[in-house]
Write a structure and sequence with these properties.
This protein is of the alpha/beta class. It has 9 helices and 10 strands. A 5-stranded mixed sheet has the order 3-2-1-4-5, with helices on both faces. Strands 8-7-6-9-10 form a 5-stranded mixed sheet, sandwiched between helices. Bound molecules: 5'-O-[(R)-(carboxyoxy)(hydroxy)phosphoryl]adenosine and zinc ion.
Length: about 325
């Protein structure tokens, strides 16, 4: 089965071609137009998707050595995400499905991230926990069995990646700030800047306090060292993730943990979770970096499984700004 995967939920346009479970092509175009605004501008995102989606599809098919007529299934992100951006991908996918007379399926973006784990060499088996850490989401989810999700906790305020981006902006680093914070943190010294590890109740996350602490520190110490602030912010932000994940592993007595979403590219995060996995005796699953940030391959991988189990989406399917994993069909 040849599956096309289309992702346009935010500021990455991506098109992938999969043959069964194998990725033949995964082309990603990251929009740099937002850099000067310090964040994603929804209308600019939508317009850029329009501009590149057809050339990207042509490139993905070329790289895969396939033609439009070879496609058996069209998959696309239907949300959550920016409405205008999602509409570009969904409308394009529907047009392709109609003109090629092929089935199409709308995929939940978070389920797509969860399926990025199925693109790794060592795949987790149910039941497993997944920590989703991206620019829009920070939540911990129990995957009981395929398609059955229970969100155990989510952020009360900012997402982890959002906090990385905002802290980077405060220090004058470019958008998106996550990779810049990681780079600067490598040169900084842990312990030089006192920043609190967040401690909300239970399995919830919170980044507002830590973000504000950085804001106050940089305001009160105008000659601050960016490397030290980056190192100590990153350490506190990641320590928070490992603490909640450890609690979730213990409370649910789950032995397998997956990490997904853009922030899981971070090498210090991977290091800290490897230590945690060893400490609690859990197996750790992380996708290769190209499948951690938004990409079409994870959408195709999730869409193909959903299609096999539930059949195609109706062509009247709409985009959604929000949609919880629990709302998806699971029986
Ligand atoms: O999954 P993703 O591509 O998009 C969303 O669905 O949000 O994640 C993007 C987020 C951004 O906040 C970005 O700063 C963060 O992932 N990110 C990182 C790193 N690379 C990307 N955060 C920390 N360290 C990194 N190396
Ligand atoms: Zn994402």
């Amino acid at each position: 089965m040849i599956t096309l995967g289309i992702e346009t939920s935010c500021d990455e346009t991506s098109v992938a071609v999969l043959q069964d479970e194998y990725v033949l092509a995964n082309i990603v175009s990251s929009q740099i137009a937002h850099t000067k605004f310090g964040g994603v501008v929804p209308e600019i995102a939508a317009r850029n998707h329009i501009r590149v989606i057809i050339p990207l599809t042509t490139t993905a098919l070329d790289v895969a050595g396939k033609q439009m007529a070879d496609l058996d299934l069209i998959t696309v992100t239907r949300g959550p995400g920016l409405i205008g951006a999602l509409l570009v991908g969904l409308s394009f996918a529907k047009s392709l499905a109609i003109s090629l007379d092929k089935p199409f399926i709308g995929v939940n973006h978070l389920e797509g991230h969860i399926y990025s784990l199925q693109l790794a060499d060592a795949r987790p088996r149910c039941p497993y926990l997944v920590l989703i850490v991206s620019g829009g989401h920070t939540e911990i989810v129990l995957v009981d069995k395929p398609f059955s999700y229970k969100t155990l906790g989510r952020t009360l305020d900012d997402a982890c990646g959002e906090a990385f981006d905002k802290v980077a902006k405060v220090m004058g680093l470019p958008y998106p700030g996550g990779p810049y914070i990681e780079k600067r943190a490598k040169k900084g010294e842990i312990g030089k800047v006192d920043l609190p590890v967040p401690h909300p109740d239970g399995l919830t996350f919170s980044y507002a306090g830590l973000k504000t602490a950085v804001l106050y520190y940089t305001r009160d110490n105008p000659d601050y060292n960016i490397d030290d602030v980056a190192a100590n912010f990153q350490e506190a932000a990641l320590e928070h993730l490992t603490q909640v994940a450890e609690r979730a592993l213990r409370e649910t007595r789950t032995r397998h943990l997956g990490l997904v979403g853009g922030v899981t590219v971070n090498s210090r995060l991977r290091e800290k979770f490897q230590l945690l996995a060893k400490k609690v005796g859990a197996s750790l699953h992380v996708a290769p970096p190209q499948y951690c940030t938004d990409n079409g391959a994870m959408i195709a991988r999730a869409g193909m499984e959903r299609f096999k189990r539930f059949g195609p989406s109706d062509l009247s399917v709409d985009v959604v700004a929000r949609e919880r994993l629990e709302e998806l069909p699971h029986v």
